[in-house]
User: Fold this.
Amino acid sequence: MMKNCISITLFFAIIGLGSCNSKIGDFEEVQRLPAIFPDYAGIVIPPNMAPLNFKINEPGSEFEARIFIRKENPIIVRSKYPVIQININRWHAVLQEARGSKLFIEVYVKGMDGNWQKFQTISNEIAKEAIDNHLAYRLINTGYVLWNRMGIYQRNLENFDETPILENKSFEYGCLNCHAFRKNDPNSMMIHIRAVHGGTIISRNGKLTKVDTKTKYTLSAGVYPCWHPDGKHIAFSVNNIDQHFCSGEIRIEVTDDFSDLVVYDIDKNSIITSPVVSSASRENLPVWSPDGKYLYYLSAPPATDLDNRIYAKYDLLRIAFDVNTNAWGDVDTVLSSKTTGKSISFPKISPDGKFLMFCMSDYGYFTIHHPMTDLYLLNLETGVFKPMEINSPQTDSYHCFSSTGRWFVFSSKRMDGLFTRPFFSYMDENGKASKPFVLPQKNPEFYNTFIKNYNIPELITGAVTISPLAIRDKVLEDAIPAKLDPSVDTVYMKAHLAKPEK
Amino acid sequence: MPWLGYKFLFQMSLKNLYGITLVRPPSMLAYTPEISLYVYYALLPLVLLAVLLFLKISEKLSGSKPKRGKAISKNSVSKKPLIILMVQVAGCALIGYFLIVNSYDPVKKRLLLIEYYAENEQWTEVLKTSRKVKEYDFRVNFQQNRALSHLGQLPDSLFRYPQLLGSYGLFIDATMAGSATMPTSDLYFDLGFMSESQHWAFEAQTLLPDSPRILKRLVMINLVNRKFNVAEMFLNVLNKNSLCREWARKYGKYVADTTLAAADKVIAEKRRFTPPKAVINTGTEECLKLLIETNRNNRMAYDYLVSYYILDSHFTKFVDYLQYYSFYNIKILPKSWEEALTVYVAKTKTLPQYLSPQMVSNNCIQQFTNFTSKIKQFNNSLPEAKNAVYKDFGDTYWYYVLYLSPKVTNVLTNKTRVQ
Assistant:
């Protein structure tokens, strides 16, 4: 019996090997690139990226892809189906060998007439610099007001493993959002919890705390965060947010009635603000310079009615802040919406401090619902800004640099105009970005039926190792209320919060 | 076990693990577990317990204990007295009866039926089933209005159902209840307001991500909006469901050949009706006005807007919009409109210039006279006159405005239960 089994197995193995090795004889050359999905042609690939599996969108009865650096030793994938799934070990071996050189993909399709066709060879580049090996994101449905199940997940970019960082089923289906990391470090993380068991979870080197960052003298609990490089402070905007549903191309506008900035001192559990960043204007989306000396942020004029609340344009400003003395400096305008003609949003500074990547839309700051939103790059040394090469006719929005600054991930709706997917691109020292490619999946048809959105993609240098159960236990605890720093001018803040009648 | 699972294995709350079969379903299912469910859960352990007890008692009665490890023979079971078997059967039947009787909720069943008929556009059935629900329910109110509108009877029969929520009975989106999401999406689709229909379909999809009903709605909206890529995404998901494959195949052809979509009667109509203008949605009234402004042939939007003004007793706006009646080839004003108009005329002592006296039927004028006389019989005491007035005028605007309108009952401001 055992002997029979072995014989049968061997027989099929030989048949299988035979079919893999059977050479394609004559073929007709097609003078164009093959249609493949996702589009992985002409891109720069990180040397540690998971296999870029793809589907050949050409009619045929048999398909073959040859992936190689040199023709004599290709990875060959032959299939009756147009889905090309590449062996992960061989893929990584090839990528390591090909660092800094070209990677080619040849696609052959056997037509219904039995004749093979060969398409033009796809040529990609393998970068020398690796990408941070994990991506953290929230997966959400497209609903705007109601929510049910959601979670923040991390995907190992070197393979296809996705694991939860935290799912809301573990705490009575509360809302969780705005995960943020200090300089791509998975050991310094924060997550907001809303509605049920509300508070902000802060994780530092395995130690978890839960705080309530709302004080009597600030507008709200912390909303949009940014870790200071020292890992001891987080800047937040505090916002009165509302949603407005629309007819036309833009389905929804997310706007603020009021917004200010605060800095949270983690060790002292205290909130710091100043009249300069809690002014009548709407300060928003703070981001630290890599040296931690400046806080860059957005600012729009006060909202006096619904129209200018929605259609206001945001400028990019910066202010010096000394985390040791809590001293605020003077405000500088970095880039004015009058100069750009558009509204600036989501500023992010490259780790070397040379570039500031940001979104621009016709108005407002919540760009993900604006199809006209594109990514721009500001050279902080020259003050020159330009639209990035990677933009598409659909929304191109939220972005994050890798720890080296050579890679960045951004949210794009380019695939269908509705669902947000993470795309990666290589940026050279001159700020030139390569053609972006979507997060690879084991099944290349994954994106055709995946009806959730990747929200806030953040590159991290490793996996978040603190367990979801430990985070859940912390979420279920009461939040520790943050104190107001004694330096805050409470008389001013009280008057500031007494909102004017509109 | 649940505690160990909670502590070491599962990302669930302890409460949810203990009641794992009772995990809160999306509220749109309108499901509440009752005692019958717990009895049902208890059945299996109870039966096992009963069998154990029965075996113990049998042993004691027979005085012989089966040896350890020795199986009970088939004969010993088959020798069970017939009477015991009969008691067991009767017990099961009783429990079954108890469960059926207790779990049967005719009102909930009818609500689900109304929802089902509305989803399948069986409007006459919606009206028939609505009549069987005796207690007021806002979902019945909403679907009844929708059904009447589809049958062209809304202006005539608006007050056949007690409109206790006023204009909130026309649009239930303000409730933000999960169960209101898809009906609201459906209504906006009927009206041709695609952006709002999509907004509510997405809210519903958040609660039930793979519901074919919701995905089908999203396909239709995106076909109307010419977002063929998005329609294709939802069709791909539907195509995975063998029950929806035929439907997906039909509309998949529309994606492959977009001229088919343009030739589809429903899609073509919605394309004519949906506002191309990008505006912020500031409320249902503005939505309806925009729909009429977009395409005056949208009779449903017109009926809803006039009904909206009547229900909220906005007389000036009602009269402003009533003047477009001639566009819809209306010869005699429908019942609710002429009733509202009589009140307007009584208040202002003027008839709008665009109306001829013949537009209001003699019957209506006579009824209004009778109505006021009836009130006078009770020395204008509304509480005392209520029952007498209800008998003859319960389905009129006049009765509504004096006794049922939220402005009178304050149900919306006081959040009192609707009686």
In short: The two ends of chain B are 46 Å apart (CA to CA). Residues 25-30 of chain B have pLDDT under 50 and may be disordered.
